[in-house]
């Protein structure tokens, strides 16, 4: 479930990763918000989304065996210009308060991934999916997209689940960028 927008509507697209930490499997919920503009109050939005996600997990009985809440990693993926300038912790949206009250100001940080922080020449030598995604979002030319698609095809051969997810995302990404519209081949998976 994903909470979004001013009306707090929900969408069924939880991203849950299972990672090994200290020899034990841990489930990590990723709360991802895609942004194409800087939002001064993004930290507050992410705090609200996280709280609503936790309420939903409690309601559905998806808490940990001991009753605690599972970890949630809030991520903002920013893919536009200018560079991101909003604070990444809701704590910083509230001015300092003297005395005891300061320690009760809410804290919630999100992980900012600003695609504009790297150039294509910095990303090209990195052999990972995140670098490929950034390069597809901001291709050097329409011809460069073909090479990137070939790399993804090679890297995702053994991962049909990720392959399908990337295929859908790539089609949506390339369709919305008029300057890079290309005819993509039909895909079977």
Automatic annotation (TrEMBL):
Highest rank taxon of the organism: Bacteria
InterPro entries: Rpn/YhgA-like_nuclease, Transposase_31
Ranges for domain Transposase (putative) YhgA-like: 6-130
PANTHER family for this protein: INACTIVE RECOMBINATION-PROMOTING NUCLEASE-LIKE PROTEIN RPNE-RELATED, PTHR34611
Name by which UniProt lists this protein: Transposase
């Amino acid at each position: 479930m994903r909470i979004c927008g001013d009306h707090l509507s929900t969408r069924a697209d939880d991203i849950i990763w299972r990672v090994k930490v200290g020899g034990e499997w841990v489930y990590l919920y990723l709360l991802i918000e895609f942004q194409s503009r800087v939002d001064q109050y993004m930290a507050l939005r992410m705090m609200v989304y996280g709280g609503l996600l936790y309420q939903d997990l409690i309601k559905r009985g998806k808490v940990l065996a001991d009753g605690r809440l599972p970890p949630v990693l809030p991520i903002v993926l920013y893919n536009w210009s200018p560079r991101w300038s909003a604070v990444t912790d809701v704590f910083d949206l509230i001015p300092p308060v003297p005395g005891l009250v300061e320690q009760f100001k809410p804290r919630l940080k999100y992980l900012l991934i600003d695609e504009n922080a790297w150039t294509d020449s910095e990303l090209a030598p990195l052999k990972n999916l995140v670098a490929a995604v950034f390069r597809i979002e901001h291709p050097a030319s329409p011809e460069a997209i073909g090479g990137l698609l070939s790399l993804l095809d090679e890297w995702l051969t053994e991962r049909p689940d990720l392959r399908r997810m990337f295929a859908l995302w790539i089609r949506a990404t390339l369709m919305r960028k008029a300057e890079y519209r290309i005819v993509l081949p039909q895909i079977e998976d």
